[in-house]
Design a protein that fits this description.
Layout (H helix, E strand, L loop, with lengths): L1 E5 L3 H11 L4 E6 L9 H4 L18 H10 L1 H9 L3 E4 L5 E4 L2 H14 L3 E5 L2 E7 L2 E7 L4 E3 L2 E4 L12 E8 L3 E9 L14 E4 L4 E6 L4 E8 L12 H10 L1 H7 L4 E3 L4 E3 L3 E7 L7 E3 L5 E2 L7 H18 L4 H38 L19 H6 L5 H11 L12 H9 L26 H10 L1
Parallel strand pairs: 1-2, 1-9, 2-5, 9-18
Antiparallel strand pairs: 3-4, 6-7, 7-8, 10-17, 11-14, 11-15, 11-16, 12-13, 13-14, 17-19
Helix pairs in contact: 1-5, 1-8, 3-4, 3-8, 6-7, 6-13, 8-9
Length: 461
């Protein structure tokens, strides 16, 4: 069978490798003509046109590790051999500390070495169809590549499949990200890490996240509302540095005795959560993957794991029914409409609840006098439950399994009563756990200072 994959990102290369190993001829077409750098360290400066988030911090979850271990174990081994750090978690789970550039470098190296994969630098113009099925793709130069299966891995724009989009959801994530990358000094070690991949300090109207990577690097990311003008200055170097000094978690990681910055301050905004399904007129054999179907808030770090899972589900469907394009569509659609949609809705609910809480804090109606009241049976906002992970071991385990896409989103509701009890006892987001026996309930100063304290630090800068 002939396959054309449009897009040489995470999902496209994963699909290409998995399909080629079934004996299919796979052509990967990508408009980015930049050659793969000589090594993973050089890849840190790789300019991947069309991948706006390429140099932003990423979390590589236990779900990603499990999918690669099952579907492309040699790629996982190569990642580790090239410096990605496996992270052991409770319940036998394992995640990765890694830069996105390292993951893409390893995937592309594997694709270049795979006998059944051909990489071609070109731009795809459209899908060719015949008799209700794909027949190939037409390049912008007029050349036609015949194909029985066309994979649209062109990212959030989904250029090849968009004209067959049916029901579509498109909502703002209501977050702007400002980040900077650092490198540990010789002999220095990473600071504290929560949830196995990232440390989080939830503030009233903002959050701070620290992402460990490979090669002794890490990123500090500050997130805010798009319409929070008081925090818009975080894009400026002096304000970003003032904020990292003011937030204890960030100050610990970026202590000049521990690390030095190796990037400018990077801003990512205008983010939206989207979900698109193919309509009934879509030709059989056309399969959009990952961001071409669903995008979500990078705050959760789910994109890469779900991209790999999506690509491997397609490859599995093809392996189950070679030559039966209708079966491929049915199998992949079941997963898309099921698990992928469940995670999309979970992210949207969490985004909306966090944005409402942050706007209340910005407008002076925050939690200074205590948290909102939640009656018996009232669902708690997802962000609030996740913020409680470091303050209670039972909540922490449930949140870890949720954060790493191990349990379904609905499983997190089991600890809602426990978090409600913590709120009633005086717990607030952003506080560290107490250094005492018993339930491990929090005490001490917040990890993220009150909003007015942060604003004062920014004004002084």
């Amino acid at each position: 069978m002939q396959v054309v994959v449009a897009g040489a990102g995470i999902s496209g290369l994963t699909a290409a490798l998995a399909l080629a190993r079934q004996g299919h001829r796979v052509r990967v077409v990508d408009r980015d003509g930049t050659a793969r750098p000589a090594g993973v360290d050089a890849a840190a400066a790789w300019e991947r046109r069309g991948v706006a988030q390429f140099h932003q911090p990423h979390a590589f979850l236990a779900r990603l590790h499990a999918e690669l271990d099952a579907g492309l174990p040699d790629v996982l081994a190569s990642l580790v051999a090239h410096g990605a750090a496996p992270v052991d978690l409770p319940d036998g789970l394992r995640a990765l500390w890694c830069r996105r550039s390292t993951l893409e470098w390893v995937l592309q190296a594997a694709a270049e070495a795979e006998p059944g994969v051909e990489l071609r630098h070109a731009a795809v113009a459209d899908v060719e169809t015949a008799g209700g099925a794909v027949a190939g793709v037409r390049l912008v130069d007029g050349a036609v590549l015949p194909a029985d299966l066309v994979v649209d891995a062109t990212g959030r724009r989904g250029r090849l499949s968009r004209r067959w989009s049916g029901d579509t959801v498109d909502v703002p994530t209501d977050e702007v990200y400002v980040s900077r990358r650092y490198r540990l000094l010789p002999g220095a070690e990473f600071g504290p890490v929560e949830r196995g991949v990232v440390s989080v300090a939830e503030g009233d109207g903002y959050a701070v996240l620290v992402f460990p990577h490979d090669a002794g690097t890490f990123s500090v990311c500050l997130t805010r509302l798009p319409d929070d003008e008081d925090l818009a200055c975080l894009r400026e170097l002096s304000s970003f540095e003032a904020a990292t000094r003011a937030v204890p978690l960030a100050a610990l990681w970026t202590d000049p005795a521990r690390a030095v910055p190796i990037s400018p301050v990077m801003v990512m905004g205008g983010l939206r959560s989207t979900f698109r399904l193919l309509d009934d007129a879509a030709p059989l054999g056309l399969h959009p993957l990952a961001d071409a179907v669903s995008t979500s808030n990078p705050h959760f770090g789910r994109g890469s794991a779900l991209a790999v899972a999506h690509a491997l589900r397609l490859a599995g469907a093809v392996a189950d029914a070679p030559g039966d394009a209708r079966s491929w569509r049915a199998q992949v659609d079941d997963w898309v409409r099921g698990e992928l949609h469940d995670w999309f809705e979970d992210g949207c609910r969490t985004d909306a609840a966090r944005a409402a809480a942050w706007r209340a804090a910005r407008d002076g109606a925050g939690w200074g006098g205590g948290p909102p009241a939640f009656g018996p049976g009232t669902p708690l906002p997802g962000w609030l439950v996740m913020a409680a992970a470091g303050a209670d071991p039972v909540v922490g385990r449930a949140v870890l399994r949720h954060a790493h896409l191990v349990d379904p989103p609905s499983a997190l509701t089991a600890v809602h009563p426990r978090v409600a009890a913590m709120l009633a006892e005086g717990w607030r987001p952003g506080r560290p756990p107490a250094d005492q026996a018993g339930e491990g309930r929090p005490a001490g100063p917040p990890q993220a200072p009150p909003r007015q304290v942060l604003l004062a630090a920014l004004a002084a800068a």
